[in-house]
Amino acid sequence: QLRLVESGGGLVQSGGSLRLSCVASGFTFPYTAIGWFRQAPGKGREGVSCISRTSDSTYYADSVNGRFTISKDIDKNTVYLQMDGLKPEDTAVYYCALHDRFDESMMCRTRLTHYWGQGTQVTVSS
């Protein structure tokens, strides 16, 4: 059974940094892309950053471009999100997800996937 387990969330002051990790296990198919989404209270889910499994191709939402960096360790089936220059508007539950057909851009922009983690809370205080 596929599992995506996120960690690394927490409370940080504005301007601070956090590093999220997501470990994927139990998958029996070669997924195409993996990435991070977030959902703030009262808002829809947003594709934050996604990365191709087989290349270094990445996608970043405009709201985080230049502040967040996605990376992966294929051997460990792990994807990371380094978040620097955090702002109060980055406060949300952050979810890891992967896709078995879409590329990283399509997955992040459409948010259409069946494979989600349980989420980790990130809170940025002003």
- Order of helical and strand elements: EEEEEEEEEHEE
Number of helices: 1
**Cα separation of the termini:** 40 Å
Residue runs with pLDDT of under 50 for 5 or more positions: none
Key descriptive features of the protein:
single chain; 49% strand; four-stranded antiparallel β-sheet; mainly beta
Task: Describe the protein's architecture and organization.
The longest helix is centred in the last third of the chain and has 7 residues, at 104-110. This protein has 1 helix and 11 strands. Strands 2, 4, 5, 6, 9, 10 and 11 form a 7-stranded mixed β-sheet that branches. Strands 1-3-8-7 form a 4-stranded antiparallel β-sheet, with no helix packed on it. The protein has 126 residues and is mainly β.
Write the layout of secondary structure elements.
Blueprint: E1 3-7, E2 10-13, E3 18-25, E4 33-39, E5 46-52, E6 58-60, E7 68-73, E8 78-83, E9 92-99, H1 104-110, E10 115-116, E11 120-125
Parallel strand pairs: 2-11
Antiparallel strand pairs: 1-3, 3-8, 4-5, 4-9, 5-6, 7-8, 9-10, 9-11
Entry summary:
This protein is mainly beta and 126 residues long.
